[in-house]
Amino acid sequence: MKNNFNSWMIVIVANVIIAVLITGILLGLLYQLNVDAIVDYVQLNTKIFLLITFLISGYVMIFSQFQINLALRLLENPKYGFWIKKIYSFTVLFLLALTLNFTLEYFQGLKEIAGTIDWIQINTRVFLLGSFYLFFIGLSLFALIGRLYVTSLILALSVLTLGVLHGNKLQFLGEPLYPSDFTQIAHFTDVLKMVSGYISPQLMIYSLLAVLITIFAYKQLQEVKITLLSRVVVSSLAFYMVFAFTFHPSSFMKKVVEDNNVNIIQWNQLKNYQKNGFVFGYLSNLNHETFEKPANYNRKKIQEIALSILADGGSTPASFSDKGYKRPNIIFLMNETFWDPTKLDVSFSEDPMPHVRNYMNEHTSGSVLTPSFGGQTANVEYEALTGFSMSTLQSGAVPYQQLIDKKSSVPSLASMLKTKGYKTIALHPYNKAFYKRARVYKAFGFDDFISIEEMKHKEISGSYISDESVTDEIVMLLEESKQPLFVHAVTMQNHFPYRTERYDENTIEVSGLENDLKSEVEIYAEGIKQADAATNKLIEFVSTLEEPTVIVFWGDHLPILGQNKAVFKELNYGDILKEEEDYRSFHETPLFMYSNVDTERKDLNSISPAFIGPTLFEIMNMDLPPYYQFLAKLKGEIAGLAATTKIDPEGKEILKLTEKQEELLKQYEMLQYDLLVGKQYSLELLFEETIE
Could you tell me which residue ranges the Sulfatase N-terminal domain spans (predicted)? Predict the structure, then answer.
């Protein structure tokens, strides 16, 4: 029975090959063997080509019984069976590679079959190259395992998993899947919990059917095995080709890849994946440094920059103590997904954030030009704590996981304040291993890290620890502290998904949207309302303190509202199709700085998180360390800094940089590389107090 089933499989595969050959011959006769003309026809008429091939394979199957009998006889003959099994194995793996690469592009195209075919028509060579890469991976597995169908199953499951993860990340976060994402693989269950509300019953049924069909088919098949000698030969070729493809920028494949229209766009990963497909988009992030070494990086150059900063520091503002105040407590309150939903073109039954809006009107305030959308909170706090910018790093980088995790110490606001007598505490009501925060905060110089395990207040609101519990935890820390306190708090309550069962009751009603989108906005607005109330509770407590205290409040990024930004599209918010040009619409969140002592109110317009530290020091009249003096100077030229967007201190976009601005950015990049990746030549000069 199994041998007969194998014969059927061989016949089907052989007929597909015969059909493709016949179609190719017909096109060859039609276009007089002009290969370019044939390729152009297939690219422009892929659907017709596939239809003709399918019809021809159907006609060939008329003779299937004869073919099966022939296949059975040949398989029983060792002389022919050996070669038939080899050819069959290679063909199966290549057809599987084509199918799996099609699937990857299907997820890349957000599950649109017509769009996937159109992409393949335009990028046939890129598609075939990617398929060959998967084919050689399949050959490598076949050589290791020695069993064709087990190899096929492992390859299919691995690639399909990548495709599903990639497609979901694109839909929810608007970002492709990167190799660095798998540094969080240990916490996959946490990530799955966040998106589980979007797994449809239909998808679960289809997945179950696929599993059942696979089990049935495998039971009917007679496994195709490969001899030890053949495995050695195949592995030598396959491993070499996998290596050459994977590291193509430094192998003989570089010219092949470039000649076949693969053009890596490192500065824009969405376009990179769209242009080059998933395979080469993904590989390009394996072959690119997270932080490329700047030209002329050396000790002499770095010390020249550092000494010029010291010489050009200017007059230091009057210190906080000069006004008779003690060193102030500093509370960083980075609120998860806090954004003003009233910017959407809908009506709300009440203002979700009346207290924050009032504090923004009365105190120093503006917007944070966040480097993230919908996620990657760690990248926002990375900027705020270090004064470094994500704009200097590879698109898709997560420095907590890729860079800081490897360092024993990195200068930060925490380490600066620690030398000034502060108790420094990081607070995040979630798993301490997420984004490797436990190790990162230690490298930053925090005295303590309070995660969900150590918190005393753990009331749940929705799906996560409430913002009010975070407020209560901060209040407790302020009451117990005997020295000036710096708390860096990152909340969790308003993290997506915004499912209908999230809260017992939604107190805000939205008009102007229907069905699930209306529900998502209402649930999100309820979270904002609760965050607003918790923030007000904290400020009311701080207002009663005798110790000078400042609260810096901001949202880390905009929310994910619907799959593939469905709410934003439905309400025509911003320019979805040109997000790069309309960066600010999707990357500006509320910011204010409250102080229980008198300070001058300032309009900050739009600033990057990297400039929050020096801005706070200036407003509170605290001595600026040399590095913060440099950041203040840079902020005076470019207050909002992203890879594709620059904003001046007045809030206007900079269309062309001046020579001074370009020079400052070069120095900024050089210093960041030195302190984060390089030899830290500038550490003693710019952070002398920090390392005492």
Answer: 328-621
Contacts of 121 (CB under 8 A, 6+ apart): 43, 44, 46
CA distance 410 to 403: 10
Better pLDDT: 603 or 287: 603
Do 513 and 558 belong together in one domain? yes
Distance CA(80)–CA(289), nearest Å, equals 50
Tell me what pLDDT residue 314 has: 47
User: How many CA atoms lie within 13 Å of 188's alpha carbon, on the beta-carbon side?
Assistant: 7
Same domain, 381 and 530: yes
On whether residue 178 sits in a domain, the answer given is: yes
What pLDDT shows up at residue 369? 96
Do 55 and 161 fall within a single domain? no
Q: How far apart are CA 238 and CA 488, in angstroms?
A: 50
Token couple for 412: 């930060």
Together in a domain, 243 and 332: no
Which class for 660: exposed (0-12), middle (13-18), buried (19 or more C-beta within 10 A)?
exposed
pLDDT 10s digits, 602-626: 999 999 999 999 999 998 888 888 9
Q: Which residues contact 26 (CB under 8 A, 6 or more apart)?
A: 52
Instruction: Please identify, among 58, 76, 94, the residue that sits at the C-terminal boundary of a domain.
Output: 76
Collect all residues with Cβ–Cβ distance below 8 Å to 73 and sequence separation of at least 6: none
**Pick from 239, 267, 284: which residue ends a domain?**
284
* Distance from C-alpha of 26 to C-alpha of 250, rounded to nearest angstrom: 40
Give residue-wise pLDDT tens across range 490-549. Answer: 999 998 888 777 888 889 999 988 888 898 899 999 999 999 999 999 999 999 998 999
DSSP SS3 for 342: helix
| Angstrom distances, CA of residue 266 to CA of 56, 284, 285, 290, 677 | 43, 8, 8, 11, 20
139 and 265 share one domain: yes
Categorise residue 562: left if φ over 0, alpha if ψ from -120 to 50, beta otherwise.
Answer: left
Q: Is 538 within the bounds of a domain?
A: yes
Q: Model's pTM, two decimal places?
A: 0.76
Q: How far is the C-alpha of 419 from the C-alpha of 283, rounded, in Å? A: 43
Domain boundaries, position 180: 84-284
Task: Return the CATH number at 500.
Answer: 3.40.720.10
